[in-house]
Amino acid sequence: MPRAARNYLEQLRRALDFLSEQERREVLEATKQEIFRLPGGGRRKRDLIRLLGEPEARALKFERHEPQALEVGSGKHFLTRILAWPIFALALLTVMVVLFAPPQAAQIDEQGFGYVAGSTGGLLAQLELLIGSQLIWIAFIPVVISLIPLWLPNIAGTIIQVIGALIMSVICVAGGGQLSLFFIPVTLLLWAQVFTPLLMMRGSMASPGPAWLICAAVLLIAVVGYATVRGLAHFSAEPWLILGPAVVLAVLALLLPFRWNSVHIALVAAGLLVMVAGFIASLPGTYSAALAWPWLAGGTSFAVGHLAVAAGMWHERARKLLALF
């Protein structure tokens, strides 16, 4: 064997010191056979480097690479963060609207917190008779519950989340009047915050199936349609001011099953814009319209869009970590 080839094999042997003696012999023997097949039989070092690479670089090809395990805790923490902060923002926005919106916009008359839209019944009215103005702290429940997974990422935190979501569900169903409608979007997100990590962590590439997306689209269209009809009933301005945004939300809902991330982001943005527009329209200086209906339509759109965006982010993260491009 030419001297250049012997020197190359010796350098390669030293570079393979991370292998066992048997493994090293096998690599050197395979390399030797390659050298015999080279033009010139490995007589020139320049040819060896050009065709086989530097000995150190060739040795790196045989280095062991242990597969990196994807920690489940890391994935759950990722889901928790991307779910929690937007839910917290919506909960805080709901509190501000309920507490500080003009009385006509919030549909609360001077008789008290529980007498909503002319209704003297409902759970909120009964609670107000018992605890008075302290009832206002109920509005802060979603704000606190939305951050529980960040503070208590364990079974105790999950139990608190379920209890909080149950309380808000009772308020939405039995609260009475339009005030309870303001809490429906954030309550949906509180339940999603409980179950989404459980569903998405079933597999590293888990993502919402077509059935979930179709159900979400149907639910959203139903809510938008109901809110539109109720909003038009007592709206004094041009109907297109309500119908236009409603059509946009409905179209975006129909596109949900296509899994287009741009559509999901647009749904979140459109939901927020409808909520803001509804608040402006509710001011006494504009149309004095009821805020509950655009809040219900826009808030539900925001909720569905946010969950779709979060699911897409989780799927994309898992795809990149597993190098499945």
Given the C-alpha coordinates, what overall shape results? elongated
In total, the number of domains comes to 2
Alpha-carbon Rg, integer: 31 Å
Separation of termini? 45 Å
Number of helical elements:
14
Tally of DSSP β-strands: 0
Order of helices and strands: HHHHHHHHHHHHHH
**What is the typical, i.e. mean, pLDDT?**
81
Portion in helices: 55-70%
SS-based class: mainly alpha
Largest sheet: number of strands, sense, barrel closure:
none
Low-confidence runs (pLDDT<50, min 5 residues)? 66-72, 104-120
**Beta-strand content:** under 5%
Structural description of this entry:
The chain has helices spanning 3-15, 21-37, 45-52, 55-60, 72-100, 103-106, 123-131, 141-151, 155-174, 184-200, 210-233, 240-254, 261-282, 292-321. Helix content is 69%, strand content 0%. It is built from 14 helices and no strands. It folds into two domains: 3-60; 72-321, no CATH class. Keywords: Membrane, Transmembrane, Transmembrane helix. The chain crosses the membrane at residues 82-101, 129-152, 182-199, 211-228, 240-258, 265-287, 293-314. This is DUF1700 domain-containing protein.
Lay out the secondary structure.
Layout: H1 3-15, H2 21-37, H3 45-52, H4 55-60, H5 72-100, H6 103-106, H7 123-131, H8 141-151, H9 155-174, H10 184-200, H11 210-233, H12 240-254, H13 261-282, H14 292-321
Structure described in brief:
It comes from Glutamicibacter arilaitensis. Keywords: Membrane, Transmembrane, Transmembrane helix. By secondary structure, this protein is mainly α.
